[in-house]
Specification:
single chain; 225 residues
């Protein structure tokens, strides 16, 4: 009997770490209202968790969307959450609690949603925008100036380069148009000029040959007389 009990205890000890490793994260609730909150997390087939979260003071310098956060003190295990119920101390509007058929989510937010307060399972728009802005921000490289003045200067430099490019392209287009106007007529004119020079050369050479023949005839006549 003792041997069986010892074996059972040994198996339970082995199974405990594995169950812990596979457990869902404990619920984390952020209170983004100015009221203190009493939070009750109800699970499917598991015991509920309850805890308190203080409200955000109007003078708080905490970043937008962070709020005050609370969580349960016990391990959640494999329990699915059925609802997150919130009671706000002294609230002037009703609270719409979070309900589900059973979820593994663990992150929740208590927010002011116009005519009521709400418990959400996704980050409110304010949180998402703040995180996106923080992610999109790029720290300037060492030695790089920053600020609106530097940005305007870079924009002006780029605009100057663009204007120079446009002017250069316009001049090229103008030159191309001028060359097109000259085109075949100019080529024909140059050909005619060249042809005229060739004819003049032929005529000059013929005249020189004629003159040479005449001189030769005169010399022959003198010698034969």
């Amino acid at each position: 009997m003792r041997s069986i009990t010892a074996r059972l205890l040994f198996l339970v000890a082995l199974a405990a770490p594995a169950a812990h490793a596979q457990s869902y994260k404990k619920p984390v609730v952020s209170n983004r209202t100015r009221f203190n909150a009493s939070v009750t997390v109800n699970y499917a087939s598991c015991r509920s968790d309850s805890f308190r979260i203080s409200g955000v003071l109007p003078s708080s310098t905490r970043p937008v969307g962070e709020g005050n956060t609370g969580t349960s003190g016990s391990n959640r295990g494999l329990c699915l959450i059925r609802s997150v119920n919130v009671a706000l101390d002294g609230a002037d509007k009703p609270v719409r609690n979070y309900t589900s058929s059973g979820t593994s989510y663990y992150r929740f937010y208590i927010v002011d949603n116009g005519d009521h307060y709400a418990v959400l399972s996704t980050a409110p728009a304010g949180v998402a925008k703040a995180k996106a802005a923080e992610t999109a921000y790029k720290e300037p490289e060492r030695g790089e100036e920053k600020g609106p003045d530097k940005a305007a200067e870079r924009a002006n430099e780029k605009s100057g380069r663009d204007a120079a490019t446009v002017a250069r392209d316009a001049q090229r287009a103008k030159d191309s148009a001028a060359a097109a106007e000259k085109g075949p007529d100019k080529a024909a004119e140059r050909a005619n000029e060249k042809s005229g020079r060739d004819l003049a050369t032929v005529a000059r050479d013929a005249q020189r040959a004629k003159d040479s023949a005449a001189k030769a005839a005169q010399v022959f006549c003198k010698d034969g007389s």
